[in-house]
Amino acid sequence: MSIALTGATGALGSLTVKALLQRGTSASDIVAVVRDDGRAQPLKDLGVSVRVAAYGEVPALTEALDGVDRLLLVSGPESGERVALHGSVIAAAGQAGVGFLAYTSAPHADSTQLLVAPDHAATEKLIHASGLAFSILRNNWYHENYLPHLKSAAATGKLPSSAGAGRVASAARADYAEAAAIVLAGGDHDGRTYELSGDVAWTFSELAATMGDVLGRPIEYVPLDRAAHTAALTAAGLDARLIQFVTQLESNIAAGALADATNHLAGLIGRPTTPLAEGLGR
């Protein structure tokens, strides 16, 4: 059985390749679809087949997916173009005769106000309409998303946030990668939508305490309203678009968009999800 991944040189894709190998999939059965062959040498060193095709290039993608049985479509980062780019992979998968497609989506993509959700919800609709067998992997946030916050807290002793009492049910990126590898390897996953998250939904006050444990010194949680947070990020020199993203995301968190801690991820991987402190480096 041939298993392919798009975005295979990225953080999630490369971890999924490793998880497949660790779980017994032969390297010769794994196809890494990459945009930049120059970044793929670590995958080649593992014995994985590397094929070059970028999102948006349907003929190249169709050729790259020739003979593939099961495919992981790792969502692309290009906001505004993401749906069309994802659609090119879905179309190519259909043309190449791929038997099953899994897609990394966002939490409750079809019903949430989360700012990144619309592209994911639209992609899910394309998958449902494609006729392909599929599974939707709705990944909550990664612990690793907060490593920049940890670095800043180490320098300042503070964790400012406008997320209020909102909670985040994050898990380690490797946990999500392991779940993807399990779904790709086969089993009763067709037509299923998994709401994948960590076992614990934490507040930013709890995040600050965990950062203090990791760093070995207290970190002060500084609650801000959105206007004050915007002003602080502006003073720190952040780009206006990034400030808009961060403050809107934290408004979403305050409203509960990332708070749903389910047992879907732990159930797939057969163990508790990685604790936040471990994900931040302890």
Automatic annotation (TrEMBL):
Pfam families cross-referenced by the UniProt entry: NAD_binding_10
Annotated GO MF terms: NAD(P)H dehydrogenase (quinone) activity
Enzyme Commission no: 1.6.5.2
Keywords: Oxidoreductase
Domain NAD(P)-binding intervals: 7-181
InterPro entries reported in the protein's UniProt record: NAD(P)-bd_dom, NAD(P)-bd_dom_sf, NmrA-type_oxidoreductase
Class of the enzyme per the UniProt entry, highest EC level: oxidoreductase
Keyword Oxidoreductase: yes
Keyword Oxidoreductase assigned: yes
Protein name: NAD(P)H dehydrogenase (Quinone)
